[in-house]
Amino acid sequence: MAFSLLLSTSPSPPRLTALRLRAPSKPSLNSNPIPFKSFVLSNPNPPTSLRLIRRVCARGTSIGDAGSGENASDEASVGEDSAAFQLEEQSFVSWVYFTGILGVVLLALNVLWIDPSTGFGKAFIDAVSGISESHEVVMLILIFIFALVHSGLASLRDAGEKLVGERAFRVLFAGISLPLAVSTIVYFINHRYDGTQLWQVQGVSGIHELVWVSNFISFFFLYPSTFNLLEVAAVDKPKMHLWETGIMRITRHPQMVGQVMWCLAHTLWIGNSVVVAASVGLIAHHLFGVWNGDRRLAIRYGEAFEALKSRTSIIPFAAILEGRQKLPKDYYKEFIRLPYLTITALTLGAYFAHPLMQASSFQLHW
């Protein structure tokens, strides 16, 4: 979520690679596709010709090192490898398009929403602020409006893509969600100290370090689809992914976990009623997203998602502690990738850019 940006099987001889067939990209809403591999693994009495394939699938291969022979996996992967990025597979033209689209979007956002002389952002904030004099209430209303639009459009994605296409629906989704997210962010920055002070721990030794580390870690729980920037900008055709590696082994809903960490850290640091209201609203929105996200993936991927769900967890590390998720010995390789290095740089940049963001928000007088 944009609000967060302030502060998202290893082999055993013989060396055979696990089958990685995926569900169709655009199944019917009423269908429950069963990947061929899932059928092979779950069918108790497969034809003779499929028995060897089932043994191969059950052995699997390591994402990080397909030939090491060190890690044994009892489960075959049904999902995708998250945060995978191969430089040699990138298209220079696609990234030129992405840069151009990003520039156009930022220009349109400034003219149509942010600029006080031409945009509607100030009028929107004034209208919502007119509902109540309480900054806490206004904060919650802004989050509710964003959540209603964001989750509502996400729920309509299948129908919307069939109606107007994947790219057009992504443009519509971003075009409505982004201005509302910016308004919520700016209002929070401008009014974060306007509420009733509930506690004051900024002078307590170690609190700043705790908040900083918690906030830093929270950015590594960004949902893996965020890494697919070409899809986010609709340069590549947007897809609904079924991720399985990396952060997904720790929690099936990393964005929710990251947002909760961010909220708890900032609530502890600021300690007033406005930030409590913001945290309650954001956490409630992401908890709803947990249910809604699982529901949508179940509709799209059927038994493939159920297989993934059985070996992952919502609560971080729960599936690992219960033995349902087995980490490869080279698990660290799933994080030593360019997207995570980029997240590290952007997180550090956002921290040092706090004064700039605060000054820019104050100039809008929202």
Automatic annotation (TrEMBL):
The chain crosses the membrane at residues 95-116, 137-156, 168-189, 210-230, 269-291, 335-354. GO terms for cellular component: chloroplast; membrane. Residues 138-357 form the NnrU domain. Coiled coil: none annotated. It is a multi-pass membrane protein. GO terms for biological process: carotene biosynthetic process. GO terms for molecular function: 9,15,9'-tri-cis-zeta-carotene isomerase activity. The keyword Repeat does not apply. The keyword Membrane applies. Keywords: Membrane, Transmembrane, Transmembrane helix. It is found in: Membrane. InterPro entries: NnrU_dom (IPR009915). This is NnrU domain-containing protein. It comes from Dioscorea zingiberensis.
